[in-house]
Amino acid sequence: MNSGRTILSQILDFVSMYEFDKCVDKYQGNYRVRSFTCWEQFIVMSFAQLSGRESLRDIESCLGAISSKLYHSGVRSEIKKSTLADANEKRDWRIYAEFAQLLIREARRLYKDDNSFSVDIDEIAYALDSSTIDLCLSLFPWAKFRKNKGAVKMHTQLDLRGSIPTFIEITNGKVHDVNILDLLILEPGAFYIMDRAYLDFERLYHMHQCLAFFVVREKHNFNFRRVYTHKVDKTSGFKCDQTIKLTGFYTSKNIPINLEG
């Protein structure tokens, strides 16, 4: 490799500028842009993500310290905080969202036969969870969470072969995790692994009707009675395999459940 090139420029060799330009042209991202193109914006934000920058000022300061090397990475313009802020605010986010989907599809293809996934199944397995990101309520009044505290939630679905995000939804902090099940495009045969926050039997039954499988933890107030116990090979890690019937609030729902643990 050329020692004069930066590591960032070598990483970007794996990114198709042709596909990126197609996304830019679709949404006219470079219309009337004389400097700091969408591609340069993508490079700068990629650098910020990879190097753990925490603010626009942090990005500006760090790039200023290596300004002599930016040209080799494809950045032709001087990076100012105000320039980056304007680009992030005004340019169409769909450019980067669609390009991200292209990168995700390519990554999933490369990890299709990933041997580090220890579960011996041919189907796709997903993990679904959320992360709460605290925000200052006075600066972000739209980020509803608590009376004196703001936050957003990032709901993420990971393809466990390669830990590749395939779905991300940003909501305010008050949106309960279980509502995200209504937004997923369910894949027949796929496994969805979730914690107890996603325990909603009507939604889980919808997953069953879509021929998808789910693994979910029960809540502490989960009421049921055992109907039948199936034989299991306990050396495989399973303690039990039971057919159960719900009691309490969900009794009238008449939803069939098979409980394994």
Helices and strands, in N-to-C order?
HHHHHHHEEEEHEEEE
**Percent of residues in β-strands:** 15-25%
Distance between the termini: 52 Å
Rg of Cα set: 24 Å
Description:
The protein is α/β, with parallel strands linked by helices and 261 residues long. It has 3 domains: 7-106; 114-221, Nucleotidyltransferase, domain 5, CATH 3.30.420; 223-261, no CATH class. It contains 8 helices and 8 strands; from the N terminus they run αααααααββββαββββ. The strands form 2 sheets. A 5-stranded mixed β-sheet has the order 3-2-1-4-5. Strand 2 and strand 3 (164-172) form a beta hairpin. Helix 2 (17-26) runs antiparallel to helix 7. It is elongated. The relative contact order is 0.08. The model has no long low-confidence stretch (mean pLDDT 86).
In short, what is this structure?
By secondary structure, the protein is an alpha/beta fold. It has helices at 7-12, 17-26, 38-51, 56-65, 70-73, 81-90, 94-110, 201-209; strands at residues 125-135, 150-159, 164-172, 191-194, 213-216, 224-230, 241-246, 257-260.
